[in-house]
Structure formats: structure tokens, C-alpha cells
Write a structure and sequence with these properties.
By secondary structure, the chain is of the alpha/beta class. It contains four helices and ten strands, in the order βββαβαβαβαββββ.
Length: 166
């Protein structure tokens, strides 16, 4: 029997896709790392990857968020995973909230996926679990938790996400 799950991944950049260049002593956003993570994990569901932008989330604009929203609205998949920088992930979640009949999960990492020790694989795994178990809506998965995407913030001091009451 074929697994009916298909996840459409929209790669926006952020730390999860950053690459370190020794000669420059800085990071740049590189190719989406999720394909490698899924391949090495041997996932048994279908997925497609759409590299939409390579931006640090601090450089994202309202126009970028509108492009993400339009991309989600135009894709056929009901399950959408967005890899994104953590600094403005809640702003993007709020920008894509309210899209009917889609389960949308944003995730990222505090350290690049290419690092030997990174939270990227764990966060992506949690995001897939959220896509499988949550009803239509927008969510953020970070630090082993699933948050309502419209009621979450990044606590920079603790390097984690937390729920907020609005």
C-alpha cells in the first residue's frame, strides 16, 4: 500500500541552511539541507522541495512573506513544511495563518544542519509529526514542542520558543 502523505517543502533559508566559509569567517545561506536529511533518514512518504529564497529571516520583508503565502495558496499539497530562520518565524506564521484546508508547519534550527551537532534533524522530525497529527492551521515546531503559529515568540535569551497569550 502506498503512503498517501505528500509534504510540500518551501525552503526559505535561515540558519538551518547556512554554510560556514573559513576564508570569510562568516555564514551564508546555502542550498536547502532538508533533502539530505530526508534521504539519510530513509523517509517513506512523498515530498517535493521548492527553494523559494535563501535569506536570513532578519532580512525578510513583508513582500517575502506575501510570496510565501501565495506559494502555499497555489500549491496542491495539503501538508506544507516551511524551513525558515528562527528570528522572524512567528511573523511569517502569522502572515500565512488562515489558509483554508492546509496544515502548515514552520521549523528551523539554532545551528546549521551541516554541523555535526545540530537541532535541525530533530526539529524537522517534529515538524513531520505535527503535519501528520494536527488539523488544518499554522504551527511552529521548535525545541521538541508544537506551538500555535499565531501565539508564539522566540525567547532569544533562552534560545527557545515559548507560547504567548494574546
Amino acid at each position: 500500500m502506498t503512503n498517501p502523505l505528500h509534504i510540500h517543502i518551501i525552503a526559505c533559508g535561515g540558519t538551518i541552511d547556512k554554510v560556514y566559509f573559513d576564508a570569510k569567517s562568516n555564514y551564508e545561506v546555502g542550498e536547502p539541507q532538508i533533502a539530505t536529511i530526508f534521504r539519510e533518514a530513509g523517509v517513506s512518504f512523498e515530498y517535493s522541495i521548492e527553494p523559494l529564497m535563501r535569506k536570513d529571516s532578519l532580512d525578510m520583508t513583508d513582500d517575502d512573506r506575501q510570496l510565501i503565502r501565495q506559494t502555499i495558496e497555489q500549491c496542491d499539497a495539503r501538508h506544507v513544511l516551511i524551513t525558515h530562520g528562527t528570528d522572524t518565524m512567528p511573523e511569517t506564521a502569522r502572515a500565512v495563518a488562515g489558509i483554508a484546508d492546509k496544515t502548515i508547519v514552520l521549523t528551523g534550527s539554532m545551528t546549521p544542519a551541516r554541523f555535526q551537532v545540530s537541532d535541525a534533524e530533530f526539529n524537522i522530525g517534529c515538524a513531520v509529526g505535527a503535519l501528520l497529527s494536527k488539523s488544518a492551521g499554522v504551527y511552529i515546531t521548535m525545541n521538541g514542542c508544537v506551538f500555535d503559529g499565531t501565539k508564539v515568540r522566540k525567547n532569544r535569551e533562552l534560545s527557545r520558543f515559548e507560547s504567548i497569550d494574546e
